Amino acid sequence: MNTSDAQPNVTLYNQGDYFYARSVVQGKTHRKCIGNRSKVSRGEATAKAAAWSRTLTDRESAPRTLGQLLDWYFKSRVSNLSIASVRSLRRTGDILVDHLGEDTELGDLDTLAFVELRTKLLALGYAENTVRKRTKEAKNILDFGVQTGMMDKNPVHGRALPVASKKGSRRDRRIIQDAEIYLV
C-alpha cells in the first residue's frame, strides 16, 4: 500500500509491521525504516519521513544546529501529542536553547554539556524528578536528530547521567569526558 507524502519525492509505505519511506534524490533511491506501525501513527510516520527526506536533499547545505533540530522535532510531534505534552517539550527546548544556544552545531554536543545542564537546573531550584524528565526529553530530541540523519550519534544515548544531588558535589567525583572514553 503506497501513500504519497506532502513532498513529491517521498513515498511512505507499509512493509509487514513497519512503515518505510522511499525517497529519490539525484537519481539515487534511499530507503529508511520509520518505525513499527503499532507504535508510530501514520501522521507521525509521515512527518518523520518528510524530515528524513529534507536531510537527504540538503545534506551538503549549512551545518545542522540545535535550533533547526528543535524546529523539525516540534513540527513532527505536534500533531499527535496533547497540549500539555507539547508545552512540556517546548519548555525543554527553551531550556536547551538557553543553556547551549540556538546556533550550536549538533556535532559539537557532548555528554558534559548535559551533565552541566542537570547541575544548572538543580541550582535553579528544579526538583530531581523534573530534572530527570527534562533530561529524558532532551535525549529523545537528540534521538530524533539521529533518526532523521541530522546527527551521526547521540552523545547521551545509552549513557546514565549522574543523579544530581542537592547535597553538594563530592570532591572525589569527576566526569569522564567523551574524548577520554574514546582513547580507552
Strand order of the largest sheet: 1-2-3-4
N to C succession of SSEs: EEEEHHHHHH
What is the helical fraction, as a range of percent?
40-55%
Mean pLDDT value: 78
| Rg, alpha carbons | 18 Å
Q: Main beta sheet: strand number and arrangement? A: 4 strands, antiparallel
Termini distance? Answer: 48 Å
Low-confidence stretches: 1-8
Name the structural class.
alpha+beta
Overall body shape = globular
Descriptive overview:
The chain has helices at 42-57, 66-77, 83-100, 111-123, 128-147, 178-183; strands at residues 2-4, 10-15, 18-25, 28-36. It has 184 residues and is α+β, with helices and mostly antiparallel strands. It has a four-stranded antiparallel β-sheet, with helices on one face. Helix 2 runs antiparallel to helix 3 and helix 4 runs antiparallel to helix 5. The radius of gyration is 18 Å and the shape is globular. It starts with a strand and ends with a helix. Mean pLDDT is 78; it is low at 1-8.
SSE order and pairing:
Layout (H helix, E strand, L loop, with lengths): L1 E3 L5 E6 L2 E8 L2 E9 L5 H16 L8 H12 L5 H18 L10 H13 L4 H20 L30 H6 L1
Antiparallel strand pairs: 1-2, 2-3, 3-4
Helix pairs in contact: 1-2, 2-3, 3-5, 4-5
Keywords for this entry:
single chain; 184 residues; alpha+beta; four-stranded antiparallel sheet; 46% helix; globular; disordered N terminus
Provide a concise account of the structure shown.
This protein has helices spanning 42-57, 66-77, 83-100, 111-123, 128-147, 178-183, and strands spanning 2-4, 10-15, 18-25, 28-36. By secondary structure, it is an alpha+beta fold.
